[in-house]
Amino acid sequence: MQPTIVLLAEKKFIGQRMKMSLADNKTGQLWREFMPRRREIVNNLNADLFSLQVYAPGHFNNFDPAREFEKWALVEVPNFDTVPAGMEPFTLSHGTYAVFTHKGSSNDTSTFRYIFSTWLPSSTYLLDDRPHFEVLGAKYKNGDPDSEEEIWVPVRLKQ
Q1: What number of other Cβ atoms are within 10 A of residue 38's Cβ?
Q2: N or C: the chain end with fewer CB closer than 10 Å?
Q3: How far is it, in rounded angstroms, from Cα 80 to Cα 131?
Q4: What is the per-residue pLDDT across 19-45, written as a single tens digit (0 to 9) for each?
Q5: Which domain does 31 fall in, by range?
Q6: What is the domain-level CATH number for residue 86?
Q7: Using one digit for the tens of pLDDT, what is the confidence trace for 102-147?
Q8: Total domain count for the chain?
Q9: How far apart are CA 145 and CA 141, in angstroms?
Q10: DSSP state of 130
Q11: What residues contact residue 62 under an 8 Å CB cut-off, 6+ apart?
């Protein structure tokens, strides 16, 4: 499974966020709160949903599943002219990403294991301290083995 390397331009999003850890995963709660309200975002660019994680620098050094990070449920917008009450804007800076296609249930972590334990260590890239995200597009079916999503991992060339 080889990724596509993409230089991503800046993107703007509107959505909701929640602090969590892998040990205290609140992803379901975040999306249950966001999904009924997503239609309040009137200027979305498309139907895709974005699940975005903001980790502190060095988060993956000496990995600790109890270490907290920020997770966002988002839709892409052209501007922040109309931000619904209780939601927030988020700007994703430009940067290089390795993009993987994950096929299968969102509960299947095999693609993430491959990325971090096989592909990344043997690639010409290092993990970069920028947000990670998944694009939940038209082929995404939550929990379904026939689901498909894109996993975007921030990378930079090894020096």
Answers
A1: 19
A2: C
A3: 20
A4: 999 899 999 999 999 999 999 999 999
A5: 4-157
A6: 3.20.80.10
A7: 998 887 888 888 998 999 999 999 999 999 999 998 888 887 888 8
A8: 1
A9: 8
A10: S
A11: none
pTM of the model: 0.93
**What does the alpha-carbon distance between residue 50 and residue 52 come to, in Å, rounded to a whole number?**
6
Tally of CB atoms within 10 A around 59 = 17
**pLDDT category, 61, cuts 50, 70, 90?**
confident
| Cα dihedral: 120, 130, 60, 110 (round 10) | -50
HSE (side-chain half, CA atoms, 13 Å) at 71? 20
First to last CA, the chain: 24
Does residue 157 contact residue 125 with C-beta atoms inside 8 Å? yes
Cα of 122 vs its chain's centroid, Å:
23
- Residue 28 identity (one-letter amino acid): G
Q: Are 155 and 116 in contact (CB under 8 A)?
A: no
Say if CB 106 and CB 143 are below 8 A apart.
yes
Residue position matching structure tokens 């800076």: 93
